[in-house]
Amino acid sequence: MNPTNDLRVLVVDDDFRVAALHARYVDEVPGFTALPPVHDARMVPRAVAEEKPDLLLLDVYLPQGSGLDLLATLDVDAFVLSAATEVDAVRTAIRRGALGYLVKPFDPKVLATRLRSYARYRRQLDSATVLDQGAIDRAQRTLLAGDEGGAVAATPTEQAVLAAVAATGEPATVMQVASAVGISRATAQRYLATLVQAGSLRLELTYGSRGRPEHRYLVQH
Q1: What are phi and psi of 105, to 5 degrees?
Q2: N or C: less crowded end of the chain, CB within 10 Å?
Q3: Which residues carry this modification: 4-aspartylphosphate (predicted)?
């Protein structure tokens, strides 16, 4: 159970001091919670099964095993955090599914940026049950885009829609946005859905007296 809805991060590093430091970095990023770190490769599968983390921060060089070997066996999102800079290590990490690779030591702001990008990536993927090619491409770009998230729009109409939502000062309806921007309800709905998938807006459902949900939109901070 995760009552706070924070993304849970498991740090895997054989150096106790470094592991504690990276866990502290994670806890300092809003929306993330660090789990107790793991220091031995043999303990990682069990920790993943019991703690069910959303993300691993995984070192390459571990006692009794390799982080790269773990990548191939664990069904969980992972960033590799390692001093290993050999081309083979980097290529293997990416080939085995690492979503990011940070070379140690690094500025904590770099990790915070990557974590925020990961949170936006998760929101984009979780916003729909089926994704079109554009949504998949946006999600992949988000992981590499750095800390450029929040209310970022690619087109003038998207910028106008975002501005209209922000200007209401409260969750905005589709009709409020359509009227403010001067577009049809269907067009407003399409742009709003795209911005939710991109992680720039958050969708809330409210229920009126008829019991039918109404979509309202907030700028995602």
Answers
A1: -80, 155
A2: N
A3: 59
Tens of pLDDT, residue by residue over 135-177, are: 788 788 888 765 444 444 457 788 888 889 988 888 999 999 9
Long-range contacts of 61-66 (CB under 8 A, 24+ apart): 61/14, 62/12, 62/13, 62/14, 63/14, 63/39, 64/40, 65/40, 65/41, 66/41
Residues 105 and 39 in one domain: yes
CATH code of 167's domain: 1.10.10.10
Q: Which of 29, 26, 75 is nearest to 37 (CA)?
A: 26
Statement: the pTM of the whole predicted model exceeds 0.70: no
Considering the domain architecture, whether residues 30 and 117 belong to the same structural domain is answered as yes
Handedness of CA 163, 167, 200, 193 (dihedral sign): negative
Pairing of strands 100-103, 77-82: parallel
Question: What's the token pair of residue 102?
Answer: 């940070």
Nearest to 2 by CA among 78, 43, 54, 39: 54
3-class SS of residue 151: coil
Instruction: Tell me how far apart the alpha carbons of residues 119 and 210 are, in angstroms, rounded to a whole number.
Output: 35
Q: Are residues 116 and 11 in the same domain?
A: yes
